[in-house]
Design a protein that fits this description.
Elements: E1 7-14, E2 20-27, E3 40-41, E4 62-68, E5 74-78, E6 98-108, E7 111-121
Parallel strand pairs: 3-7
Antiparallel strand pairs: 1-2, 4-5, 4-6, 6-7
């Protein structure tokens, strides 16, 4: 099930003649332009940036993320868009401080997108 994400705008106008009017608009935001991907996180249990997560303003139809170490070994994977990587490998071991490569694939309105990037893990 794909939920539509709507943005509501309400404009109020007051004219010098004393009349006023309101304009109510609803529209779907550009979900691709609003994607928020952090470039660093620190899984040290201090309550600040403890997980690497991606903010989707609209839920994607399909999603997958793979995270690799500097040797190209897959250390984390998820197909849940509300994932949160806490710096542990799929075996539950803490991974070392450093830069990791991610491959993000998702679909909005039938259009497939792919983003490759880096995230730095700090402790």
């Amino acid at each position: 099930m794909v939920l539509k994400c709507l943005t509501t705008f309400l404009f109020s106008f007051a004219l010098l003649t004393g009349f006023s009017s309101q304009l109510h608009l609803e529209g779907e935001p550009n979900c691709l332009d609003s994607l928020a991907i952090p470039n660093a996180f620190s899984p040290n249990a201090d309550g600040n940036s403890d997980v690497f997560a991606i903010h989707f303003p609209c839920p994607p139809e399909k999603f997958s993320i793979n995270i690799y170490n500097r040797w190209g070994e897959l250390i984390y994977a998820s197909e849940d868009p509300s994932f949160g990587w806490n710096g542990l490998s799929t075996e539950g071991q803490e991974v070392p401080v450093g830069a990791y490569v991610y491959k993000l694939q998702y679909t909005y309105h039938g259009k497939e997108e792919e983003i490759n990037g880096n995230v730095v893990l700090l402790r």
